[in-house]
Amino acid sequence: MQLNAILVTQNVFNGIMVGGLYALIAVGYTMVYGILRLINFAHGDIMMMGIYFAFYGVILMRMPTILGIVFAILATALLGFVVDRVAYKPLRNAPRISALITAIGMSFFLESFAVVVFGANYKSFLQVLGKNKAFVFKTFKLGGVIIPQITFVVIGITIVALLILFYIVYRTKIGMAMRAISADIPTTSLMGINVDLVIGFTFALGSAFAAIAGIMWAMRYPNFYPYTGFMPGLKAFIAAVFGGIGSLQGAVLGGFLLGIIEVMLITFFPSLMQYRDAFAFLILIIILLIKPSGLLGKKSIEKV
Amino acid sequence: MKKVVVALLVLIISLLTFGVIKIGVVLPMTGGISAFGELVWEGVQLAHEEMPKVLGEDVTLVLVDNRSEKIEAANAVSRAIDKEGVVAIIGQVASSHSLAGGQIAETKGVPMLSPSSTNPLVTQGKKFVSRVCFIDPFQGGALAVFASDLLGVKKVAVFVDIEQDYSVGLTNFFIDRFKKSGGQVKKIYYKTGDQEFSAQITQALAFGADAILVTGYYPEIALVAQQAKMLGFTGYFLAGDGADAPELVQIGGEAVEGLFFTTHFHPDANVTERSKRFVNEFVRKYKKKPSALAALGYDAYMILMEAISRVGKADPKLIAEAVRSIKNFEGATGIITIDENGNALKSVIVDVVKNGEFAFQTVIQPDQILGK
């Protein structure tokens, strides 16, 4: 097949679309890591729970779409807070590997919980959108290149989300506490700061972003089931490492780049299209070999 | 005293079981694809209600659950034969389950009749395993005939799920037949669980496809249709019986309107007199329209009864032979002929999605597929 300018441009935009979603998920992912140095492998599953909250808020509790989404964000934030209290808080002083294993356990738990409570079958997010579903399918045409409206929505929400985050982290008291904790937990607690509350708040905030990302994800891909969070969670992890885990700007950059690279590899090597997920892991390996701290990551000195 | 009680019990049991023909029904009643098992069971029960006796003896159905698992699918067949003493088995739904269970039925010499396993391997090299549904080469051929002869399509982009034998097989059989009609094909790969297809769809558009065929299952079919429409694709959408689930419309919404798919049965198709009767009876009993799987379950039972009555006694080996000698049997899903390999030759139904419902489009006859 011949490569032409339109095909390539179209796929760049397709990549931006996917990358925007990765970026949005990676922001929440990297935030928890930045504060706690914890790879929260359950992040993708918290995102999945966010989708279910929106679904049941609208379907069972008959909320209007917007209210259902707000409800989902709040419920997911609460879930994040509870997850931290139940699973991570008891391990605050344990070796980091224990917390990592607990995070993987939490991921399995949330998936199995969803299978038991919500059922293993696919559900459709279009039911949540109701009359608003046409909004998801609107597209713009720019000289032969077609861009779905939702691309702009995803990018817009990512920007707004980042602005809110930066405001919280750099302009508020709790943000200052978060930064202090990321530097040194024991000393921070000596300063009279309720460390557990601040960490709980961080989880709630990260989970709220997971819910927003999940809802965006479900608008683009309306079929969801209890394992929906698995792949996006993994991709967001790769994006976060790519951009420099712990760095918010890095997560966004990593997300967009990962999306674009994935799509462009298929564009230039169509015969490899079934290995698309493998490319993502290849990128992870390469970045870990060449620049382990990621593109925008700071080189941190390990305390011995 | 004890001996008398035992003797009495034995007498009662033998009286109760005297003149009873036991038929095993091995289906997934729990687990991942339990929804499919329930649908088949509805059809089998209806058929049993309509014909509760054969050779003047009562037929007893023994339902055994395979828990949607491959290993349990084999165990369930053993249990039905050894513990329950069934003379024949109706089952199973998924091809992989029928493959596992069929091996046991073959060794023990008891006929097994699958209502819905379409993979060619299920009956290959076996004497006792047969089926009442068409096989994938047939379905792929029907799709090709429909695309080239009825829609006039010249270039098809086929989305192949590399993780499903069903999809890979169906694709190859489609391509064989479609190329004979002078069509061009481009294969596009994905795997189960993929959600983002825009890069692949862009390739299909660059190929100039006037139809997109997705040979996998409904979650991906729905997403491909959605994303292809968003990227400006205006041609036809085609799929196999993997699309035949109400979730297709729930997930796909308006994007799957106009999608054509091949399947086994549609309540409005009225392919035979018996289909009409079956639909009426089904609606009366269950207060809803029958699914393709229910119709296949019904046909499996009826063909088994026909085979037993031809043999004249409940002998498993003779029943297995009789099943394979069935010609032009009028079933609910069509006129069924079972060939010497145990595969059903029958018409293929094409449905179209219209106003969020599956509407009957047309029937493709076996000679249309095999001809040319």
UniProtKB/TrEMBL annotation, chain A:
UniProt-recorded name of the protein: Branched-chain amino acid ABC transporter permease
Keywords: Amino-acid transport, Cell inner membrane, Cell membrane, Membrane, Transmembrane, Transmembrane helix, Transport
Entry-linked CDD domains: TM_PBP1_LivH_like
Membrane topology of this protein: Multi-pass membrane protein
One Pfam family here: BPD_transp_2
Location, primary (coarse class): membrane
Signal peptide span: none
Record carries keyword Cell membrane: yes
Transport found in the keyword field: yes
InterPro entries according to UniProt: ABC_transp_permease, BCAA_transport_permease
Similarity comment: Belongs to the binding-protein-dependent transport system permease family. LivHM subfamily.
Transmembrane segments: 12-32, 65-87, 99-122, 142-170, 191-218, 224-245, 252-272, 278-297
Compartments where located: Cell membrane
Entries under PANTHER family matching the protein: BRANCHED-CHAIN AMINO ACID TRANSPORT SYSTEM PERMEASE PROTEIN LIVH, HIGH-AFFINITY BRANCHED-CHAIN AMINO ACID TRANSPORT SYSTEM PERMEASE PROTEIN LIVH
Protein species of origin: Thermosipho ferrireducens
TrEMBL record, chain B:
The organism's place on the tree of life at top rank: Bacteria
Pfam families xref list: Peripla_BP_6
Keyword set includes Transport: yes
Keywords: Amino-acid transport, Signal, Transport
Domain Leucine-binding protein stretches: 21-344
Family the entry assigns: Belongs to the leucine-binding protein family.
Protein name, as recorded: ABC transporter substrate-binding protein
Organism: Thermosipho ferrireducens
